[in-house]
Amino acid sequence: MRPSQRQPDEMRAVSLERGVVKYAEGSCFVKFGETHVLVTASLEERLPPWLKGQGKGWVTAEYGMLPRATHSRTRREAASGKQGGRTVEIQRLIGRSVRTIVDLQALGERQITIDCDVIQADGGTRTASITGAWVALADCLAWMKTRDMFKTDAKVLRDHVAAVSCGVFRGTAVLDLDYAEDSEADTDANFVMTGSGNIIEVQGTAEKEPFSEEQLLALLALARKGTGKLIELQKMAIG
């Protein structure tokens, strides 16, 4: 039995609330159970120097945890003068995930920055961030479209993207791990998938014993079910 009493293929309660930040072009407050992340999408009329003059845009991401997002206070990374390796890895993952479904040529020479701030952490902060990032990004692009900022009728947002964690906990493949499971899992994996069912990224690690191909396929099946539900929630969120 899972600590949360959920079934192996049962996700935590998920909510996606749009338009929660007044000044951002797009925003979403995403909750995966007790994991809460505030996501904003900001349009900027600038580009990284290495992209200038190429006629296409860029989507990037930043990620951070507030000091009391966890059981004990963690020092702000700004106070230490540098980001930790985990932070850099997660924000690169978020950026890669959302870029795959954006027509950067149609975006024009602009940059959209996705900011993911973890208010409360109980496992799965990166997967919640990616899922909420899509909603914030969709709203940002819709904001641009109403202002005729695209020179083409091409579909700028080409697909949905959502992410979910899976793992092997006490010998059983389970969906959407919370912290109690994540901290004790035999295997921990994150899946990032599109609305069309394609895979953007898979991160899988054997924490104790190596996992089998059969277990990997079981985790993939759970991930497909989980991301399918998340994408349905995304569709409901943006109306």
UniProtKB/TrEMBL annotation:
Catalytic activity: tRNA(n+1) + phosphate = tRNA(n) + a ribonucleoside 5'-diphosphate
Keyword tRNA processing belongs to the record: yes
Gene3D superfamilies, per database record: GHMP Kinase, N-terminal domain (3.30.230.70)
GO function terms (MF aspect): 3'-5'-RNA exonuclease activity; tRNA binding; tRNA nucleotidyltransferase activity
Swiss-Prot/TrEMBL keywords: Nucleotidyltransferase, RNA-binding, rRNA processing, Transferase, tRNA processing, tRNA-binding
EC number(s) from the headed UniProt entry: 2.7.7.56
Annotated binding of phosphate, by residue: R86, G124, T125, R126
GO biological process terms, semicolon-separated: rRNA 3'-end processing; rRNA catabolic process; tRNA processing
Ranges where the Exoribonuclease phosphorolytic domain occurs: 10-140, 161-226
InterPro entries noted in UniProt: ExoRNase_PH_dom1, ExoRNase_PH_dom2, ExoRNase_PH_dom2_sf, PNPase/RNase_PH_dom_sf, Ribosomal_Su5_D2-typ_SF, RNase_PH, RNase_PH_bac-type, RNase_PH_CS
Key word tRNA processing present: yes
Known partners and oligomeric status: Homohexameric ring arranged as a trimer of dimers.
HAMAP family assigned to the protein according to its UniProt record, in alphabetical order: RNase_PH
Family: Belongs to the RNase PH family.
Described function: Phosphorolytic 3'-5' exoribonuclease that plays an important role in tRNA 3'-end maturation. Removes nucleotide residues following the 3'-CCA terminus of tRNAs; can also add nucleotides to the ends of RNA molecules by using nucleoside diphosphates as substrates, but this may not be physiologically important. Probably plays a role in initiation of 16S rRNA degradation (leading to ribosome degradation) during starvation.
Protein's name according to its UniProt entry: Ribonuclease PH
Source organism per UniProt: Undibacter mobilis
Gene designation per UniProt: rph
